[in-house]
């Protein structure tokens, strides 16, 4: 069995050129079992290089799960979920990973949620020393990666304080730029997340945390998930089933082998194990039995309906969307039969 990391065989299209969306590129390939028609199933898969976004891919590579299910997977690193949704829409990706802030994109018909992953606890509203409350952000510069969980937690924190984004000077930024801007004091605050905030704290040890996910968990969940292009789900059932089988086995492995999963994720992303361990501490890992249960009993639909309401109130969605229109939970369960 052989695995390699190379540049993807398929380039990201011209519609994404110049966006610098790919931080790094990896591939895992093998010549193992083939699909039903005798051919290896080629898959392009996007991810974000953190524990949530990468742990299952790291397991799949290490445990030979792609090979087992006849898949040749090319993986590409992205800075956020919306860029992956964009790549799904152009056909440059088949599958990807998104955090909760990007769930409005499948809810608006731009992709399908094919598998739930974890519950996030890594998002924060942070500020420079001397700023003591969300109310103190009035008139201040606040950086945020738009359409992400950082955007989401900022919106929720402002709403709880009786404020909106109109009350701050919002500065849309990509995650690497936010790290630099917070570290150098170029912005007063940000809606952002760990593990990147750990890097900021090395330069700003007194960084103030004004809000986190747990402040809002009674009303809004922060799930992470895997997504697929609409055309992939509609036209290539064999590919979807094979990938879901891989993800299901990786989910089961992760729940039983957290320490090894952290090490595999660190190796996959070329990060220190201690940094990945700290990142994983902000994650609620759901095992396979739990994911099946919450899919079957409607818990996931309840989460998604609550998120839809948030996105409508935030002005991101025009109207509530039935989760059945974009969450293919039936396919996730079928892959386990």
TrEMBL record:
> Which Pfam families does UniProt cross-reference here?
NMT1
Q: Enumerate the spans annotated as SsuA/THI5-like domain.
A: 58-259
Q: Which residues form the signal peptide?
A: 1-27
Q: What is its main location?
A: periplasm
The UniProt entry's coiled-coil ranges are none
For this protein, the record's NCBIfam families field holds: SsuA_fam
Q: What is this protein called?
A: Aliphatic sulfonate ABC transporter substrate-binding protein
Origin species, per record, is: Promicromonospora umidemergens
